[in-house]
Amino acid sequence: MNQLALLVAATLSAGTPLALAGLGLLLNERAGVLNLGSEGIMLVAAVAGFGTALLTGNEWAAFAAGALAGAALSAVFGWLVIWLNTNQYATGLAISLFGSGFSAFVGIDLVGKQLVETPAPSVPLLRDLPFLGEALFKQHPMVYLVMTLAGAAAWFLYRTRAGLVLRAVGESPASAHALGYPVRRIRLAAVLAGGALCGVAGAYLSVVYTPLWVEGMVAGRGWIALALTVFATWRPARLLLGAYLFGGVTMLQLFLQAQGVQVAPQFMTMLPYVATVVVLVLISSNPLWIRLNMPASLGKPFFPGA
Amino acid sequence: MIRLEARTAPSQLMGVLSPLLAFATTMLVAGAIFAALGKDPLQGLQVFVLEPFNGLRALSELGLKSTPLILCALGLALSYRSNVWNIGAEGQFLMGAIAGGGLALWVTTAELAIPKLAFFPLLVVAGALGGAAWASIVALLRDRFNANEILVSLMLVYIANLLLSWLVFGPWKDPNGFNFPQTVSFAANTEVPRLIPGMRLGWGLPVALLAALAMWLFMFRTYRGMQLQVGGPAPLAARYAGFSSRAAIWTTLLVSGGLAGVAGAFEVAGPMGQLTPHVSSGYGFTAIIVAFVGRLHPLGTILASLVLSTFLIGGELAQSRLGLPSALTGIFQGVLLLALLACDTLVQYRPRWSRSS
Description:
The structure holds two protein chains of two kinds. Chain A is mainly alpha-helical. Chain A is built from 13 helices and no strands. Chain B is built from 13 helices and two strands; from the N terminus they run E-H-H-H-H-H-H-H-H-H-H-H-H-H-E. A two-stranded antiparallel ribbon of chain B has the order 1-2. The N and C termini of chain B lie close together (6 Å). The chains are: A mainly alpha, B mainly alpha.
C-alpha cells in the first residue's frame, strides 16, 4: 500500500514537466504552429533555471528564468517561421540542435554543482491523511499548478473569445485574416506562450525533479511532449492524463526494480520511448479521428497577400 | 520597415548565395563568441576553420569525418525532397554500427581467416541491412498506421542508443576489459582498408563519393527519382499523376536508413575498431544540417559535409589549443542552419523597404 502511494506520488512528479511542455505545445499547435524545437528550448531553459537557482536559491526565480529563456528562444523560432516563412520542420529541428549545443556550452561550469536542499513541500493537514497524504499531498506546488493550468487552458480555448480566435487562426488563418485579426501576431503570442511553458518545464526538470544539470538531461521529453499533443488530440484535459500516463511509465522502472524484477536497466529506460511509439500508432491508426481533431492549418505557413 | 514580396520565380542566384551568406553569418557570430570569451577572434577562426585543412594528416581526418556525414546526408536529402521527414539517421547509424560491429566481433572471436578485401563488402551489407531494418520500422508504422515519422524515427534514436548501451555493458562486453563498457578490439582483417599508409582515412570515403554520384543519377536522371520528388513540393499533383506516396515512404526510408547504416559500420570497423557507447559523435543529427546546407543536392552534400566536419575538428582543436569547450561546435552548427533558413527566405521573397507599415 505504501509502495503504491509512493508510485502515485512519483508519477505525478514525473508527469508534471511533460504536462507543462505539452500544454505549451498544444497552445502553439492550436494556433497552427508546430514547434519541433521543444527539446532544445527545454534544455536551454533547464540550464537557465539551474544557474538561477544556484545564484539566488529561489525556485520561483529559476522558473521565471526558464520561462524567459524559453520565450526568447521560441521568439527566434517564431520570427523565422511566421515572418520569414521558413519551413516549420527544419526551423524547429535547427532550434533543437542549437539548443542542445548552446545548453551544453553554457552549462559546462554547472555540471556537478548541487543546489541547497529545501525542505520537501507538502499541503498542511491533508498530508496526514492515510495513503492519500503520501500519494497526493506531498508534492511540489508546481504539480498542483499544472493541474490548474490544464483547466485554465481548456477554459481559455473553449470558453473565451480570445481562445476562439486562437483556434480560428489555427484552423483557417485566411478567414481570420479576412475578419481583421492579426494572424501573425496571434501566432507569435502563442509561440511565445508555448516556449515559456516549455521553459518552465525545463527549469522544473533541472531544479526540482533531478535536481542537477547534466548535458542533454531533458532526454527526449521535449519530443515526448510533442507526441502527447497528438495523443491528446489537442485537448488540455486529455493531455494532462497522457502526461501522467507517461510519468507512470517512467516510474514503473523503479517500481519493478523494487519488486525485484530482473531486467537490464537499459530496457527499463527504453519504456517511455517505446510507449511513445505504441501510443502514436494506436492514436494515428484511425486517420479520420486525427483529421477531425487536428488544427487544419497545423504546420502550414500563412503569408498575408499584399 | 522591410516588407517581403513574393518573387514570381525562385531566385537561382540566391539559391547559391544563401549558404555562403549563412556561412559568413556563422563566422561573424563565431568571431563574436571568441571575443566574448576573451580570445582573439581571428586566431579562433583560424584554429576553427583553417587548421583542419593544414597538412595531409589533417586532410585525412577531415575525410574521415566527412564520410559518415555524406552517407547520412545523402539519404536525408532524398527523404526531405520527397516530403518524408526522417530525422532518426542517428539511430539508423547506430544500428548499422551494431550490425557491422557484431559481424566484426563474430569474425574476431571465431578467429575466421577471412581476407580484408572479402570482409569489406560483407561489412557494407551488414551495415546497410542494420540501418535499413531500423528505418523500416518507421516506414511500416507510417505506412500502415499513419504514425508521424518525425516522432517515431526520433524515439528510435533513443531506443537504438539504449540497445547499444545494453550490448556493450552486457553480452558483448570484453571479458578482459577491466569492466569498461566496450567490446574486444576487432581483429586486423575486419578493418576498413586504408587509402594512404599511416593515415586513418579508409575506403569509406570513395564509397561515400560513389554513393553521392549514384544518388545524383537516381534523383535527376531516373523516372522513379523524379516521381518521389514530386510528392515534396506538390503532393496533390503527385497523387493526380498516380505517383504513390507509399512508395515514397518506403523507398526513401530504406535508402536513407541503409546509407546511414553503412556509415555506422564504417565508423565502427574503421577509426573505432571496437564497439563502445560513443560510436557516433552525433553524425546522424549533424547530417540533417549537412543535407540542408548542401541544398538537398548530392554534390552540395559533399561540400557541406566538408564545412560541418571542419567545425567538428575545429571544435576539438579549439579545445586542445585554446582551451575552449568543444561544445562550441554545436552552437556553430545550430547557428549555421538557422542562418541558412533565414537566408533561404531570399530565394522565394524579395525584401522591399517601405515607409508605412
